């Protein structure tokens, strides 16, 4: 997962989000890879209005997760071009203003950080984690509907 000319202590973190617009929730998938270990996470985010908002909220959760895990040299990778451009201050997106401000405030205490776009093909594990979490939620909802007591 390392980039050329990148220090060996940098951890690559890949994330993706899947929006369930009917419930205004998003499922996120996250992979954290380093020379020492690989970790995967899934999580639900509530009150999500759009796919871009889902990606932004996912990034904020990912940054907070890295902070909790005390990972201070991180390369955040996403297949959302708009999100990466917004965080890197290349593109102004009103919908992401407060989220990008939160993300930048949190990573200010990190030692080394970068936000990088990657093609969807390189983000398949995070994508599958998010989609699988959504499928599990969908199945649970359908099961609950079918099993309603009379």
From TrEMBL:
InterPro entries: RNase_H-like_dom_plant, RNase_H-like_EbsB-rel, RNaseH-like_sf, RNaseH_domain, RNaseH_sf. GO terms for molecular function: nucleic acid binding; RNA-DNA hybrid ribonuclease activity. Residues 19-133 form the RNase H type-1 domain. Pfam families: RVT_3. It comes from the Eukaryota. This is RNase H type-1 domain-containing protein. It comes from Brassica cretica.
């Amino acid at each position: 997962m390392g980039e050329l000319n990148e220090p060996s202590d940098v951890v690559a973190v890949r994330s993706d989000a899947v929006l369930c617009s009917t419930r205004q929730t998003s499922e996120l998938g996250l992979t954290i890879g380093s020379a020492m270990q690989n970790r995967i996470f899934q999580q639900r985010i509530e009150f999500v209005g759009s796919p871009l908002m889902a990606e932004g909220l996912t990034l904020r959760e990912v940054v907070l997760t890295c902070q909790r895990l005390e990972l201070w040299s991180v390369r955040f990778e996403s297949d959302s071009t708009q999100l990466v451009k917004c965080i890197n201050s290349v593109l102004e997106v009103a919908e992401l203003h407060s989220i990008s401000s939160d993300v930048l405030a949190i990573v200010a205490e990190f030692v080394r950080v970068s936000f990088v776009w990657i093609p969807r093909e390189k983000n398949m594990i995070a994508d599958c984690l998010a989609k699988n979490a959504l499928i599990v939620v969908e199945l649970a909802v359908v099961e609950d509907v079918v099993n309603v007591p009379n």
